[in-house]
Design a protein that fits this description.
The protein has a single domain, classed as Up-down Bundle (Hypothetical Protein Ta1238, Chain: A), CATH 1.20.1200.10. It is mainly alpha-helical. The chain has a two-stranded antiparallel ribbon with strand order 1-2. It has 5 helices and 4 strands, in the order ββαααβααβ. Helices cover about 60% and strands about 5% of the residues. The chain starts with 11 loop residues before the first strand and ends in an 11-residue tail after the last strand. Belongs to the Cob(I)alamin adenosyltransferase family. Pathway: Cofactor biosynthesis; adenosylcobalamin biosynthesis; adenosylcobalamin from cob(II)yrinate a,c-diamide: step 2/7. It comes from Paenibacillus bovis.
Length: about 190
């Protein structure tokens, strides 16, 4: 099988149930999720050794679920019975967030993306995830979508923030505080 089909040479692409322009909001939404998936793969590759085995396993599962998100958004008309993304996936992310958050020091100020290379990669995942969420919100305002995808992406960006901090902690690297930040987070 050849990798090129030439069917997109005129600026159209296939979605499940039809063809649309390559700059259609649907393509932009699932394309941004695909971009995110590539960055998650990069972060998984950086999560080396026993120290990050749990995180690497999470990231590999997240990659599968991001494909599910893209698949749900690629349908022009989709019945709920065919949805791959479900509410339970966001609930599981919340459990993961809570598990990792206990490793992190109390946050008082805004932090800059960075620190250890793995933490920096996870911050890139967070920001691309936020863009994917925005694109999904735009699509959802124009057309019917699986709302669980939007919720999953929202929770996933929180997960990336927390595990970026955990990556720094496990590598003995401090988060980089934004020096002009007031103390904006309160201790619970």
């Amino acid at each position: 099988m050849g990798i090129y089909t030439r069917t997109g040479d005129e600026g159209q692409t296939s979605v499940i149930g039809g063809r649309v322009s390559k700059d259609d909001i649907r393509v932009e939404a699932y394309g941004t999720i695909d971009e995110l998936n590539s960055f998650v793969g990069q972060a998984a590759a950086l999560a080396e050794g026993a120290t990050f085995e749990d995180l690497r396993e999470d990231l590999l599962l997240i990659q599968q679920e991001l494909f599910d998100c893209g698949s749900d958004l690629a349908f022009v008309q989709l019945s709920e019975s065919k949805y791959k993304v479900h509410e339970e996936m966001a609930v599981r992310l919340e459990e993961w967030i809570d598990r990792y958050e206990v490793e992190n020091p109390q946050l008082e100020r805004f932090i800059l993306p960075g620190g250890h290379a793995l933490a920096a990669a996870l911050h890139v995942c967070r920001t691309v995830c936020r863009r994917a969420e925005r694109r999904t919100v735009t699509l959802g305002a124009a057309e019917e979508i699986n709302p669980a995808v939007r919720k999953y992406l929202n929770r996933l960006s929180d997960y990336f923030f927390v595990v970026a901090r955990t990556a720094n902690v496990r590598n003995g690297v401090d988060d980089i505080e934004y020096v002009r930040s007031q103390k904006v987070f309160r201790r619970s």
